[in-house]
Amino acid sequence: MTKDVLTLASQDMRRRHFATAIKRLEARADVYEGNFEYYLTLGIACLYVGDVGASSSYFQLARRIKLTDTRLLLGQAAIFLRRGDTARALQYYLEIKENEPLNKTAEQAMEFIRIHGDYDTICRWVDTGRIEQFYPPLGFNPNKVLAILFPILACFVGVLVAIFIFPKNKTYTGTRADLSKIELTSEEKSDAKEEDLTTQSYKFVFTSKEITKKYNNAIQYFQNHRDNAAQIEINYLLNSNASLSIKQKATTLMGYLEIPDFDTIRDVPTCSDVLENYILYLDCWVNWGGKISNAQTYENGSYSCDLIVGDDSLSRYEGTVTVKFDSTPILDGSQFVRILGKIVVEDGRLCLKGRAVYQSVHK
After folding, report:
1. Residue 4: strand, helix, or coil
2. Cα–Cα distance between 253 and 220 in angstroms, integer?
3. What does DSSP assign to residue 181?
4. Whether the Cβ atoms of residue 202 and residue 186 lie closer than 8 Å to each other
5. In sequence order, what are the residues at sequence separation of 6 or more whose Cβ sits closer than 8 angstroms to the Cβ of residue 29?
6. Among positive and negative, which fits the CA dihedral 204, 206, 208, 211?
7. pLDDT digit string (tens) for the chain, length 363 residues
8. CA-to-CA distance for 140 and 143, rounded, in angstroms?
């Protein structure tokens, strides 16, 4: 089967045939226009051959499509490190560590900067090629490890044969997680609502059929990795006349929802929608952009500010919300910022529980 150019170029790069990879990719520039992996792969290949100018240009094209890919951030950090601009490099490494706390390449690069971050040492490392250990990893070179892999593969095949001859019992865990324990019973479906509405007031009043549908929607959204959409359905149920057992299962489902990052977050509500009816959006995640004001750092290290939500010029204003961080984030208060946070209520006030920030390093 014929392989696409991106696959062939990746194979070339693992064999350290960077010039071949660049030639392949540049010949398909018209086909892959606007493709993130194309620009990223070209940028990395150019970085390894020492063409820093071309590498930087391709990384900038990739960044317009995706902001927080670790390989991209490592590549851009490496460019600044090569130039001796350790302050800018550290900004990228800190962003990587925030998204992937266990990333070894970023950790080793930060340690290098701390101990050997002077310009003369960096120049020597660039000259000898040692700086490449901080580039985006390429994986094993198959030309070097093939001889080692043959005996390992032979053993592996033997193990596979044994597994297929003596199969073990398998259990189905669903598309994303095993939610069988919180599936609605037939009794819960037929009696899904509270019958006595006089003891408590509800924001939403549904029929049993509507409650069952919203619960099933939440399950389906979860399995499709649309956690914000699932959370909204859960909030409908928790603030409705749904039965206690259904509300308990909906709360259990919340425990399966994951924390997103800037690239994986989906179904982001607008600030204006949240301010209008925040009950529906509690515990949802947002990545709102805007300018900050009233920033404060407290004695315990926590930080708060007001985020004026809108575009970079604030010509489109959506609203203002308080943001709170457990520790002070690294950001420039005079520049446009994008904040990843969770919608919560603290002390009776709507606010964002901040998790991460993104600001372009280009002013």
Report:
1. coil
2. 11
3. G
4. no
5. none
6. negative
7. 678 889 999 999 999 999 899 999 999 888 899 999 999 999 999 999 888 889 999 999 999 999 889 999 999 999 999 999 999 999 999 999 998 999 999 999 999 999 888 888 998 898 888 999 999 999 877 766 554 554 545 445 443 433 343 344 333 334 578 888 899 999 999 888 887 766 678 899 999 999 999 999 999 999 999 999 999 999 999 999 999 999 999 999 999 999 999 889 999 999 999 999 999 999 999 999 999 999 999 998 899 999 999 987 778 899 999 999 999 988 888 899 999 999 999 988 999 999 999 887 555
8. 9
For residue 135, what are the CA distances in angstroms to 58, 63, 80, 126, 294?
15, 17, 11, 11, 39
> What token pair was written down for 178?
């095993």
Which SS3 state, helix, strand or coil, does residue 338 take? strand
* Residue 236, C-beta contacts closer than 8 angstroms, at least 6 positions apart: 204, 206, 214, 280
- What the block records as the tokens of 314 is 């604030």
pTM metric for this prediction: 0.56
The CA distances from residue 281 to 16, 56, 284, 341, 342, in Å, are 49, 39, 5, 12, 9
CB-based contact 356:99 (threshold 8 Å): yes
Sequence-ordered list of residues with C-beta below 8 angstroms from that of 331, at least 6 positions apart, any chain: 292, 337, 357, 359
Identify residue 356 by its one-letter amino acid code.
Answer: A
C-alpha dihedral sign at 248, 250, 256, 261:
negative
